[in-house]
Design brief:
Layout (H helix, E strand, L loop, with lengths): L2 H27 L8 E10 L16 E10 L1 H11 L16 E7 L2 E9 L4 E2 L4
Length: 129
């Protein structure tokens, strides 16, 4: 078999793995997000240097700093998590500009469950993969 065939097969296998992993992560941290007791809502704005605490998105695009935050606890936090779980996490709906104005942090007993930034222009969000 020519070497380029192995390269194509390897790329296809790797691509399938990452697409599958992305879907599994979206399911796990989307509709299957565990119960939470606290949600931090962070308003983002203004570019900041790499490594700045509370900057988003953590691994793509220009980093935006946190200009304001609100912490929601108890039943209200779980209400926000319930709305999050109802989102259709199909990656085919995104146009991929990802220019977020908000970030969310979901917590349970002080432990971070999910940190995501949300773009309202293209309906994208970030997920750890």
């Amino acid at each position: 078999m020519p070497p380029f065939v192995n390269l194509v097969v390897s790329f296809t296998t790797l691509r399938a793995y990452f697409i599958g992993r992305t879907y599994l992560t979206a399911e796990e941290l989307g509709r299957l997000l565990p119960t939470v007791d606290e949600v931090e809502i962070l308003a983002l704005g203004g570019e900041v240097a790499d490594g700045t605490p509370d900057s988003f998105p953590p691994d793509i695009g220009s980093r935006l700093g946190t200009v304001n935050r609100k912490t929601i606890r108890g039943a209200e936090a779980e209400q926000i998590a319930s709305i999050w779980r109802d989102i259709d996490f199909d990656r085919h709906f995104a146009s991929l500009c990802h220019d977020p104005f908000y970030a969310l942090r979901f917590h349970l007993h002080g432990r971070l469950i999910l940190e995501t930034s949300v773009c309202w222009k293209c309906s994208t969000y970030t997920l750890p993969t």
